[in-house]
């Protein structure tokens, strides 16, 4: 049978419980916020800031409240804040806050960034992330990225004293050992100059890069915790979320009925490199980020599959393709192409939806995706690493396999020697009764043209929630049946045959574990 990870479930609105609405406690005191000293005495709960930061804090407090005093928690405005790099700053949206679009500051903070668009109730939202930032620009005692920028942890220290922070979101790591941006740029350049795919160049050392960034993200999370404690917060007073990165590219672009071509669409690069990015590079990065979140005690949001089906050059793309700002020197410098392959406004809306659902859920680990091409992300308990499992046929001992490692529409599904590869991983969405291949959240088992007849071979097709993509699993018989034709069962007649529909007879070739 198709197996989902135990306990994995869709987090519905009915099940979502606000977990931060109870009484909060002052760090190290065990005293509820309501019992804190009256207005004007809040400084006793937080450590003094260095003079230069205190001056900035007082100026911001004056703008918020009309005077510079540090208020007790119950008298403060509520807030949310995002820290990190271009993935969360708004790079790629195209509209940026004044002072962050050059020539001396390229943070590219967008008013459409995710932190400003959640459904989480807050009086103030702060985006202190910056395009190009690495963990050294975020951690305590780190370096300024630009002369007019603070170290991001210092910005957090100020905001934490002037407002009551409900959620701190960190998206970081891509600009450390991974150097994701330069790698993407090199892959595109190699395609433009006909120099050959970049996978052979980067794949051998990719895991080493991931391993190198993990402790840096862990340290950064630890530093942010310390900053919040020094500002008078207990760890349970707010959510600290480490958010993972989605894959902006994929190899299935020609399935888009309106595919414009690689160059016009901005999905420039070798298709094999796009497959490597989606199937290997981003998943390895995601596992590293998950480890960093677990080791540091942060909440983790796995967005690695969020853009599946919405990649550059796909329908309703949530990421911007290759973009050259010709107002900068040509051939392109770093600033002329920096907006490429980043979330667009729709991508940030997806982030915001996932963060909203996560905040309400109370989960320590969750994943987000659009499972039926609805354009509306849904949150699931746990990370995607734990969701997918091989589907082994009892009669043949072989595993259900997406032929050739492809996920294009119409890919035949058959049996093959079990190899623990992503084209042999499957996840059963119990809510929609769809069976997804691990290669992409956007491809499901499909009965072509809904022809429910003996001998019909199943294929992969763009997940749509249609009736011919709905299957039921019979726990007692270990069979998988089309919901619309339950007298038929998925059958693997021989080890490397096609998976076909046949009349259910209880044989071992119709049983899957």
From TrEMBL:
Residues 1-26 form the signal peptide. SMART domains: RICIN. Residues 388-513 form the Ricin B lectin domain. It comes from the Bacteria. Pfam families: Lipase_GDSL_2, Ricin_B_lectin. PROSITE patterns: RICIN_B_LECTIN. Transmembrane segments: none annotated. The keyword Membrane does not apply. Keywords: Signal. This is Ricin-type beta-trefoil lectin domain protein. It comes from Streptomyces ochraceiscleroticus. The lineage of its organism: Bacteria, Bacillati, Actinomycetota, Actinomycetes, Kitasatosporales.
């Amino acid at each position: 049978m198709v197996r989902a990870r135990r306990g994995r479930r869709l987090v519905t609105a009915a099940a979502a419980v606000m977990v931060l609405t109870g009484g909060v406690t002052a760090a190290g005191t065990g005293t509820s916020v309501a019992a804190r000293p009256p207005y004007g005495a809040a400084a006793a709960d937080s450590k003094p800031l260095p003079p230069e930061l205190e001056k900035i804090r007082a100026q911001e407090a004056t703008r918020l409240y009309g005077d510079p005093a540090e208020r007790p928690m119950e008298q403060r405005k509520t807030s949310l804040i995002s820290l990190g790099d271009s993935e969360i700053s708004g790079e790629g949206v195209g509209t940026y806050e004044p002072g962050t679009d050059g020539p001396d500051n390229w943070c590219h903070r967008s008013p459409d960034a995710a932190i400003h668009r959640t459904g989480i109730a807050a009086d103030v939202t702060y985006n202190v992330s910056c395009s190009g930032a690495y963990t050294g620009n975020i951690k305590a005692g780190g370096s300024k990225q630009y002369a007019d920028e603070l170290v991001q942890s210092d910005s957090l220290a100020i905001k934490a004293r002037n407002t009551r922070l409900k959620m701190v979101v960190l998206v970081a790591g891509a600009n450390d050992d991974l150097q994701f941006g330069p790698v993407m740029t090199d892959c595109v350049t190699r395609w433009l100059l006909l120099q050959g795919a970049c996978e052979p160049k980067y794949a051998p050392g990719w895991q080493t890069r991931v391993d190198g960034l993990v402790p840096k993200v862990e340290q950064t999370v630890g530093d942010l915790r310390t900053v919040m404690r020094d500002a008078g917060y207990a760890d349970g007073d707010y959510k600290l979320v480490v958010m993972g990165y989605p894959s902006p590219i994929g190899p299935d672009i020609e399935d888009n009925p309106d595919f414009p071509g690689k160059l016009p669409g901005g999905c420039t690069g070798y298709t094999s490199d796009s497959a490597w990015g989606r199937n290997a590079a981003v998943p390895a990065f995601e596992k590293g980020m998950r480890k960093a979140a677990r080791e540091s005690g942060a909440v983790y949001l796995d967005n690695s599959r969020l853009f599946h089906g919405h990649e550059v050059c796909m329908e309703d793309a949530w990421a911007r393709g290759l973009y050259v700002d010709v107002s900068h020197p040509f051939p392109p410098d770093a600033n002329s192409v920096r907006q490429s392959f980043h979330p667009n406004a729709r991508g940030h809306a997806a982030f915001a939806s996932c963060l909203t659902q996560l905040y309400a859920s109370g989960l320590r680990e969750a994943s987000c995706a659009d499972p039926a091409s609805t354009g509306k992300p849904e949150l699931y308990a746990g990370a995607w690493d734990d969701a997918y499992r091989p589907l082994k046929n009892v009669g043949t001992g072989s595993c259900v396999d997406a032929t050739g490692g492809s996920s294009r529409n119409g890919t035949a599904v058959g049996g093959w020697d079990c190899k623990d590869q992503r084209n042999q991983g499957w996840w059963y969405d119990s809510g929609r009764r769809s069976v997804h291949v691990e290669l992409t959240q956007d491809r499901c088992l499909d009965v072509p043209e809904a022809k429910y007849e003996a001998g019909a071979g199943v294929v992969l097709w763009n997940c749509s929630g249609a009736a011919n993509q709905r299957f039921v699993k019979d726990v007692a018989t270990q069979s998988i049946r089309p919901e619309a034709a339950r007298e038929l069962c998925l059958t693997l007649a021989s080890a490397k045959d096609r998976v076909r529909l046949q009349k259910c007879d209880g044989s071992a070739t119709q049983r899957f574990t």
